Amino acid sequence: MAGVANENVVFFGHLSELYQLAKEGKIETKLQGSHTRPCKFWTAMKILSGIKNTVVIAHGPSGCAFGVKQAYKLTNCRNSGSPYESIITTNIDEKAIVYGGEKELKGAILEVDKKYKPDVIFVATSCATGIIGDYVDAIVNKIKPKINAEIVAIHCEGFAGEYRSGFDLVFRQIVQLMDKPDSESRSRLANSVNIVGGKMGPERTEIETDVKELRRLIESMGANVNAVIAGNCSLEEVKQAPSVAVNCTLCLDLGYAIGREMLDQFNTPLNSTILPYGISATERWLREAAKHLHLENEAEELIKREYEAISVEFEEAKKYLAGKLAIVEGHDAIKSLSIAHMLERDFDMRAVIYNFHPWSTQARETSIDYLLETGLDPEILITKGTLAFGKYEAMVQTENELMEYLGDLNPETTVYFGSSMSFPNIPVVDLNAILNRPRFGYRGALKVAKCICTALEYSFRPRSWVTKKMVFPEDSGLCSAQSLTPKLAQDLPDCTVYAGRERGKCMMS
Amino acid sequence: MYDELKFDNCNHSKDPMVGCALEGATGVLAGIKDISIVIHSPQGCSSTVSAAYDVHEIDFTKRKVACTRLFETDVVMGASSKLKNLIKEADSKFKTKAIFVVGTCAADIIGEDIEGLCRNIQPQINAKLIPLMAGGFRGNLYDGIELGLNALFPFIKKQNEKIPCSVNLIAPQANLNPTWWADLEWVRETLEKIGIKVQAVLPHDTSLEELDNAGLASANILLSHDAGYEFGLKMKEVHDIPLILSDIPLPIGLKNTARWLRAVGNYFGVEEKVEAIIKDGEDLAIDVLRRRGLMMIPRYRNCRVAVSADATMGIGLTRMLFEELEMIPELLLFRSPVSDSQLLLENELTDMGISPKVVFSADGYQIKQSLMESCVDAVFGSSWEYYLAEELGIKFVFDVFNPTNRQNYLNRAYFGYEGMLNFLENVANDWERALRSKHIDWEEYS
After folding, report:
1. Domains held by chain A: number
2. Which of A85, A417, B191, B369 is paired with A477 by a 20 to 30 Å CA distance?
3. pLDDT score of A509 more than 60
4. Tell me, which fold does domain B286-435 have in CATH?
5. Which of A125, A142, A175 is the last residue of a domain?
6. A229 CB-contact burial (10 Å; exposed 0-12 / middle 13-18 / buried 19+)
7. Quick one: A308 and A452 in the same domain?
């Protein structure tokens, strides 16, 4: 392959080798100072924003509450027609920093209970109150009998862990709200599943999302979805969640925390597999769910039906794709690994993941362990730009290194799976583009196949010089199209999560 | 004068409508060219810095921000060597003339001596290092703007001479117009037309050289009624530059624009030039509205309205709505405490002879309660108010302020004569959309 041995390559090999190097400390696994992710507070809030009729009290200065309110709550209003929702701050000031903010917190809890009458109050700590050591748990426990709402403390100070730890923490805490199953509840929900690992809130109704596709598949098998946790679920749904037949992960990485906790605490079975991109991953996901629902025959019929519905087009596309090379952008570790899995298993393509930051090997350790166990071990290419000071996701250096790596690869036999904000001289398939959904399930597999075919079919068209100049202007130095702080927007139907100043402002614009 | 509303259950819990001091402070820094920011904080605070850059709509190619990404061990053990290394790295990679080293809540509380560290490391660094403690607990967005403005003093050279007919423009970003830089541009162009030079904008797209020469200006004009007042007073104290025009509304609507222009004219002795601008501007606005906006007379007359804004927009707008459109401002909701502009607001309301209900530092809950308990027909606000009012069944919501649901590809001022037309155009379009019947019982017509 052209350029592989060039001086800009930091690593080129299989995921398992990278994993080993990272464990031995032989490759940089720290994010650079210019690479930030949302902090633990932000990720915790993203999950909490997916539970209806709850109020979060962010115990700290106003900025933490305001930031997430503008990003998540306003997005929910804009994208999903949600009514206006608050996030409350105790508005800690200098005096409270010196003398403690416990009085403010007590007052805020009582006020919120009276004026909002929520089902649940979540008290979320911030850096400021975490450092001064306000005894939040004691306050919460003491005040419980005095209020009508349920109340849960969430210790999600921004400094208290890597960004994904906020997801895990909240998912584990949500389990505290659940009722222990009994025979009545188990029998009532014997034909139901939870989809776990959701976040934010309701989805746009006009878009064929991945969650909707999973729901459709479950229902087509003859089962029901009790709740998407935490994707616009109610307290009642959460309470009865442990009684379902099985928890199915929406995202292996995010859903595992709550699924594991529910398995340990309530013995609720867990169907935790790779993201259901493509046919083989979807089959595994469905069969595992069906086992616990005792709907194995129905699942097989569904698998057959779903495949038949796409088979002609899919097989046609596959013929066209087999043997081709796919370069997969690795910014989102789990998604890129799942896409690589789909391309290799379903399309007989060769996948190379590019720009996969070694930091992901630690941040996503659980998932990567699982994927390696399943035999998935794709090739990974890391160039210097990924580890450089800048924004590796779309900076000039990584773009140039990608071009160098691609060298004289034939655009008729190579496809780039990544952001359309990247401009390699080969066809680009952007699975985060709003209309390229659903990506899960059989319909998703067909959608992906069609996207690839379309990209190849139109490979004669040069990329727009206008959009290229928008993303990579002259003298852009360390620029990145993702210099606006990513808020994990890729998970949303149209990457408009950082809904700050204008509606529809793409995070990357 | 006004009836200030009070609320139960709001002493300890706030549903914030503005960000914290960090956003305000870095929102000032983001207006300066050729600087970078090293933020000493957990990584989430870098989102706030991004929001600050968004305020100036600075594109991704010009943002130079690095974050120390503090974790638990750093909080316990301190993280000065981490900060030192990052400053060195930022200096060699960003190659800017100055680096602002900003401490947020975590660094601020654990007592990181950013000032001492910057002093010690300065000889090894090419960029000028400016320490700034801006923990969110130091106040709200507007307090942060004052903090950020104060951090500019080291860049402003003491000057004995002043350039006649020259001004600095202060805090243009403390303004809820979604494209506020168009307001700044209107001010700049208008001043230039009457022979007044803008020495420096403090700050928006401002070079370090412009900052250096800001001390040469013969007057300072504040473009906000929410922030920058203290800085303006301190500029008088330190650089002997008077703060002018802070006691009248900003140029919103015909009368306020004329007042503002005449005040400038009187101060600089260019009355005649100003009168010509006023005449041309009023002719333009009235001629356009005669042809395109006649319907607004029966539409808006005696319509009871709420204005949910900042003081910068809200104070000026109240007079325009009341006197020029004949609306009735029933409810004024200010996101800021309006601390330095309360007297101006009182004078304006007394002069107009109206006593609306008023809320200062209004949060989401208070806005909703106030709207629920009022009997307004329409609300001027942002997308927040749009959703709140929709829920309450208020039919007319004018989405004119930040954050907005409007797409603006071209900048549109609200200041001045064309600014008034821009504003009214938005209002007129929202009015039309609100009257599009969506629930027709067609069977009734069959």
Report:
1. 3
2. A417
3. no
4. Rossmann fold (3.40.50)
5. A175
6. buried
7. yes
